Amino acid sequence: MLGINAEIVKLDNRSMTTATKLSLGFGALIVILIISNIAVILPLQSVDSAIEAMTEVGRPRRAAAKAIEVGVLSYTLAVRTYAQTNDPEHQKDAEAAIEEIEKQHSEYARLAETERQRYLAEQFLPLWGILKQRGQAITNGGSRFYSEDEWSRFTESRVEAMGFLREQMLPESLDSYQNNKTIATGKVAAIERFVAIFFIICLLIAIVMSQAVGRAIVRSEREIQSRREHLRATLSSIADAVVTTDIDGRITSLNLAAQHFTSLTEAEAIGRHLTTVLPFIDEATGIEVESPALKALREGSVTSADKILLATRYGTQVPVEDHAAPILSPKGDVVGSVLVFRDVTERKLHEQELIRIQEELDVRVKHRTYELAETHAELVKEMEGHAIAEQKRIDLLGRLVTSQEDERRRIARDLHDQLGQRLTALRLKIASLKDAAGEHEILTPKINRLQEIALRLDAEVSYLAWELRPTALDDLGFAPAVGAFVQEWSRHFEIPADFQAAKIPKRRFSPEMEIHLYRITQEALNNVAKHAGASHVSVILEKRGDRIILIIEDDGTGFVPGKRSVPDKSGRGLGLLGMQERATLIGGEVEIESAPGNGTTIYVRVPLTDAVKTKSV
Question: Model-level pTM?
C-alpha cells in the first residue's frame, strides 16, 4: 500500500518524458550487450584450462581409491602385529587405519559422478565391513589365542577387498578421468560457437527493438495517465486509512477510509497541516505525540506505532496502529510521506480478554503446582521408606553372609581336625592290616582297594575343607588365590581351565571385596561343573579404570538368563542369585550373557573406591 501511494507521487514528479527515458534505456541496452558479449568471448579462451581443472575430480577420486588400498594394507598389518605382540599401540594403529579407510571411502563416494562409480562405492562397503568386523574381533579379543580358522577368514576378507579395489575401483577411476577430460574439451569448443551466434542474434534484436521504441512512446504516455487514475481509484477502495503529505507535512491526498476518520472530504483536507487534521495521543501518558508521518519526513526512514490514540473532531479517542514511510524522488530525495493507519479497537478488546484468561490460567497453574508439590513430597517420603527397607535388606544379607562364612570356617576346621585325623588313622590301620596279611594273597587285592577308597576319601575331604575356607586367600593374596583355586578346580573336576590376571594392584583389597569375589568365582565354576557340560573354561581378572572386572566364560550348553532370574523348586538359580547378592554387598553388579548351545559368560564389575560400604565377613 505504501508503494502504491509512493508510485503516484513519483509519476506526478517526473521531470523527464517517458520517450526520453526509453530511448536512453534502449541505447544503454545495446551498449551493455556489446560490452557483455566482448567480456564473455575474451575469457572463453581460458575456459579450456578451467574446465580441465574442474574435471580433476577424477584425480582425487582415484587418489581416494588408492588411499583406501593403502589403508586396507595398513589395517591388516596393524591387526596381525597386535595379535602377535598384544601391544596397545598396534591396536591404536588399527583404529586409526579404520578411520582413514572410512574417510577416504566417504571422499570417493562424494566424488562419484556416474551410476557405475556409486555402485562400486556401495559394493565395497560390505567387503570392508566383514574385514573390519573380523579384524576388530582380533584387536578387541585381548591376549587370547587365535585359531588358524580365524586367521584364514581374516586373510580371505582382506584378499576379497584388495581384489575389488585393484580390479574394479582403481581402473574405473583412471578411465573416468580420461573420458571427462575429452568430453570437457569438446564442450568448450561448442560454447565458443554458441556465444558467437548469440552475440549476433542479440545485436539484431536490439536494433529492431530500438526502432520500435519511437512508435511505443506515445502509447506509453497515455498508459501512464491511465495508470495514475487507476491507482487513485485503488486507494479509495482499501480498508486502511491512507494519507500522503508533501515535504512540509501538508496533506496532498487521503482515501475514503481516512476521510471517515477525519470527517473531512479530500478537498477540505488537502493543503492543511497533518497535525491539525490527525492529532495523535500517547496511550500511556495522554500527551499528544509527534505524527509518525512527520518523523518519517525528518529521519527519512520507515516508522510505526501501535500504542497511540487518534483524537477525532467529536472528542473521542480511537486506538490505532499506524505506519509511515518517506516518499523519495527519482534522485533519492525525500519529497513527502505516506501514512497508513487502522482502527484496532476490536483487537485491544481481544487482548484484554486474553490477559484476563491468562491471569485465570496463572491461578490454576499455581493451584495445580501446589497439588503436584504435595504429591511430590509424598513420593519422596515413600521413596525414602523404600531406600530404608533396601538398606535393611542389605544389612541383613551382610549378616547372613557373615554367618555363612563363620559356619564355613567351623566346618572346615572340623573336617580338617576331626574327620581328617580319623581318615589318616584309617589309612594307617589299613596299611598295618596289609602288613599283617602277609602271604595271604587272597586278601591283598581287597586291602589295596580299601587303601584306594581311603586315599580318595581323604582327598575329597581335604578339597572340601580347602574349598570351604582356602588358606591361600590369607597367605598368597587375592589374585594368586583365585588362580590357585582355578587350577585346583580344573584338576579336581578334570575340566581344562585357564586364568589370566592383568593390571591388578599389588596392594591388598579390602577383606570383604576379596572374599566376595573369591566366593563368586567359586560359585560360577561350581555351576559350570554341575550344569554346563563345558570342555573349557576361562577366568579373567583385570583392572579397568576405577573398577575390578571378573569374567568367567565357558563353552557349555548355555541357558536363557531370564529363566534363571528366580530359583525354581529344584534349587537351580540359587547360585546366580547368591552371586548377585554378594556383588551388591560390595557395590558391584553381575551381568550374564548366555544362550542355549552357545556357552555362558559372567561379567562382575566392582568399583575400587573407599566410598563403597561393605559388610564384615
Answer: 0.34
Bigger pLDDT: 132 vs 42: 132
- Cβ atoms of 587 and 606 within 8 Å: the answer is yes
Identity of the residue numbered 85: T
Measured distance between the N- and C-terminal CA atoms of the chain, rounded to whole angstroms: 90
* Integer Cα distance of 427 and 349 in angstroms: 110
% pLDDT > 90, the chain: 4
Judged by phi (left if over 0) then psi (alpha if -120 to 50, else beta), residue 16 lies in beta
Q: Which residues contact 270 (CB under 8 A, 6 or more apart)?
A: 251, 252, 253, 254
Cβ atoms of residues 5 and 258 within 8 Å: no
Minimal CA–CA distance to 131: which of 87, 179, 79, 184? Answer: 79
Q: What would the grid cell of residue 582 be?
A: 554378594
Closest CA to 488 of 434, 544, 539: 539
CA distance 589 to 607: 9
CB of 158 closer than 8 Å to CB of 76:
yes
Query: In whole angstroms, what is the distance from residue 561 CA to residue 364 CA?
Result: 50
Beta strands in 172-293 (DSSP E): 241-246, 251-254, 280-282, 288-289
Q: How many CB atoms lie within 10 A of CB 228?
A: 13
Cell numbers 563368586 correspond to: 520
Residue 592 CA to residue 579 CA, distance in Å, equals: 11
What burial class does residue 63 get, using C-beta atoms within 10 Å of its C-beta: 0-12 exposed, 13-18 middle, 19+ buried?
middle
* CA dist list (Å): 254 to 11, 305, 338, 612: 17, 20, 10, 85
Q: Could you give the percent of the chain with pLDDT greater than 70?
A: 66
- On whether the CB atoms of residues 602 and 582 are closer than 8 A, the answer is no
From the centroid of its chain, how far is CA 63?
30
Find, among 116, 10, 115, 104, the residue nearest to 61 by Cα. Answer: 104
**Tens digits of per-residue pLDDT, 366-386?**
788 788 878 877 887 777 777
β-bridge pairing 317-328 and 334-343: antiparallel
Which pLDDT value is given to residue 421?
64
Determine the 3-state secondary structure of 573 from DSSP. coil
